[in-house]
Amino acid sequence: MERPKVRGPTLGIEGVRGDVSLDADKERILSRSPFARLTSPSRHALLEIGRFERLARRQSIVQQGAPARHLVLLGAGRVKVERVADGRVFPLGHRGPGDLVGDSALAGATVASESATVLDEGDALLVPLAGLDRLVAADPAIRAALVAALVARQLETEARLGSLLLCTVEARLLEFLRAAARRWGQPHAAGELVSAPFTHADIALLIGSTRETVTLLLGKLKRAGLISFDRRRIVIRDGEHLAARAGST
User: Fold this and answer.
1) Residue where a domain stops, chosen among 110, 131, 163
2) Rounded Cα–Cα distance for residues 246 and 140 (Å)
3) Is residue 214 within a helix (H) or strand (E), and if so which, with residue range?
4) Cis amide prior to 41 (ω within 30 degrees)
5) Which of 131, 163, 195 corresponds to the end of one domain?
6) CA distances from 20 to 14, 16, 46, 103, 233 (A)
7) What is the DSSP secondary-structure string of 125-168?
8) Disulfide engineering: 50 pairs with which of 115, 125, 129, 211, CB 3.0-4.6 Å?
9) 3-state per-residue secondary structure call for 171-203
10) Structurally, how many domains does the chain consist of?
11) CATH number of the domain to which 190 belongs
12) What pLDDT does 236 receive?
């Protein structure tokens, strides 16, 4: 099995691109993150310590058991987050634009409790935990935004657990499709394209099912005219009916 590439911080990126362009990239990423509503000087302080980085496919940006050094704010792309326990891999989810990666270290752990690997290339703002700790201690606005983000992640985790316990596989698939469209959705001639190329095996892991069942259910949704496919990517053809079906399943 091919192991993800472990790559250190990008070197010299600020020498390759102008400061103005880098500032615009950092602002773009911050504006999609849980810190989007920060105003100056809080906003400026966070941008000042953050570093823009391009993310390459299969790059490891967090490694379970390694020292926790950064909070990663994703601007584009897709990252797989998972944890290994007792020799088994437990998928924690796929993160996309606007999401945080490495936030489990914010509770004070000295090492990362999960691994994060880039699936689709993108970019991110890397905020060093040492600098972030100082800002959190001194700035109530940053502290409040961070607490809100952690509470939202907790609620998301509880909702996923509830779905696994109480909902049918079809209901979990429908909710996955709606969430994927919100995070990776792009306009398409036939509706809304989920730009992230999820495989049926990926989806099965994330919703607690099997690849065969996911394939059957996606075929059923396609025949109903709710979805289609474009180069192995899912197109949501009828979001309203998809939502209604999710509510009734």
Assistant:
1) 163
2) 39
3) helix 211-223
4) yes
5) 163
6) 10, 12, 17, 28, 35
7) EEEEHHHHHHHHHH-HHHHHHHHHHHHHHHHHHHHHHHHHHHS-
8) 125
9) HHHHHHHHHHHHHHEEEECCEEEECCCCCHHHH
10) 2
11) 1.10.10.10
12) 96
Residue 220: how many CB atoms within 10 A of its CB? 13
Whether the predicted pLDDT of 1 surpasses 80:
no
CB 30 within 8 A of CB 86: no
Same domain? For 237 and 120 the reply is no
Whether residue 184 is found in the same domain as residue 220: yes
Q: Are residues 159 and 63 in the same domain?
A: yes
Among residues 168, 147, 175, the alpha carbon closest in space to that of 239 is found at 175
Please state the pTM of the whole predicted model. 0.84
Q: Is the Cβ–Cβ distance between 192 and 185 less than 8 Å? A: yes
Residues 143, 197, single domain; the answer is no
Please give the pLDDT value at position 18: 56
Residues 157 and 177 in one domain: no
Task: State yes or no: pLDDT of 203 exceeds 50.
Answer: yes
Task: Give the best-scoring range by mean pLDDT among 6-10, 30-34, 100-104.
Answer: 30-34
